[in-house]
């Protein structure tokens, strides 16, 4: 016969399947950053220019956009 505490312990130790594609996660993380060398990265402006490319300028402090694209 199972007591309440025994069923709580059974429910607490369930295993979950974890499928993480680390290459895809790394690429997604790097989308709004540029490499400055030695494994360090710096945030870049998230705006898209009129030619369809990303703006590569540094964003303003506490903002996602540079001084040109900050509306």
Key phrases:
2 strands; alpha+beta; 71 residues; two-stranded antiparallel ribbon; single chain
Question: What would you say this structure looks like, in words?
Answer:
The chain contains 2 helices and 2 strands. The protein has a two-stranded antiparallel sheet. 25% of the residues lie in helices and 13% in strands. The protein has a domain at 36-71. The longest helix is centred in the N-terminal third of the chain and has 9 residues, at 4-12. With 71 residues, it is α+β, with helices and mostly antiparallel strands.
The end-to-end distance, rounded to whole angstroms, is: 67 Å
Relative helix content: 25-40%
Q: SSE order in H/E notation? A: HHEE
Strand order of the largest sheet: 1-2
How many H/I helical runs? 2
> Which class of secondary structure composition applies to the elements?
alpha+beta
Summarize the structure.
The chain is an alpha+beta fold.
Topology:
Blueprint (H helix, E strand, L loop, with lengths): L3 H9 L9 H9 L2 E5 L2 E4 L28
Antiparallel strand pairs: 1-2
């Amino acid at each position: 016969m199972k007591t309440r505490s025994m069923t709580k312990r059974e429910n607490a130790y369930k295993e979950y399947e974890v499928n993480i594609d680390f290459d895809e996660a790394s690429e997604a993380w790097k989308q709004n950053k540029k490499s400055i060398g030695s494994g360090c990265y710096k945030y870049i402006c998230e705006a898209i220019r009129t030619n369809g490319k990303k703006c590569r300028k540094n964003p303003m402090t506490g903002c996602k956009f540079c001084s040109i694209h900050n509306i």
